[in-house]
Amino acid sequence: MAKISTAQIKELRDLTGAGIMDSKRALEDADGDIKQASAALMEKGLASAAKRAGRDASEGVIEAYIHTGSRVGSLVELNCETDFVARTPEFKDLARDLAMQVAAMNPSYVDRDSVPEDAGDVSEDEILLDQMYIRDTSVKVGELVTELIAKVGENVKVGRIERFALGE
Question: CA–CA separation, 103 vs 144, rounded Å?
Fold first, then answer.
């Protein structure tokens, strides 16, 4: 087993946001390989994100985005469990990115659960969490939310969305 330095632990923590002991264990299991340890931590985080899905998320932020020219805007409610997480830069950045996504892609619903039964056939483009992310089309919006859950260790969910455009 390779000796793990504090510099390696710090690098992995900066990369993943994981705790010190989790980072150390992941590096030990990966024989010091940062990429392998990062992948292991992400898997562990994504698995634990599924467990957090049922927890109450009553804190958060409402983020507004107004597109250049002030002709299109959106509001997004992004919820989490504590106001501490709501104040983190990662949480605020995700809220901003989601507001831009809503302004650009005009989804009708947040997720499959919010689609009314009488809505008929609804495409992925009409559901925010199923849409491809506008800044990186290899990732779905729902995956961004799941990654944040894994990083912050709390349930995070999109509460409500609204898009406004002049003339609509």
Answer: 17
pLDDT of res. 152: 83
How many Å apart are CA 155 and CA 78, to the nearest integer? 11
Q: Is the pLDDT of residue 3 over 60?
A: yes
Residue carrying the six token digits 């961004």: 144
List residues bridging with 158 in a β-sheet: 78
Residues with Cβ within 8 Å of residue 53, at least 6 apart in sequence: 155, 157
Residue 73 CA to residue 137 CA, distance in Å, equals 22
Q: What is the rounded (10 degree) CA torsion for 128, 130, 131, 137?
A: 140
pTM over 0.85: no
Single-letter residue type at 82: T
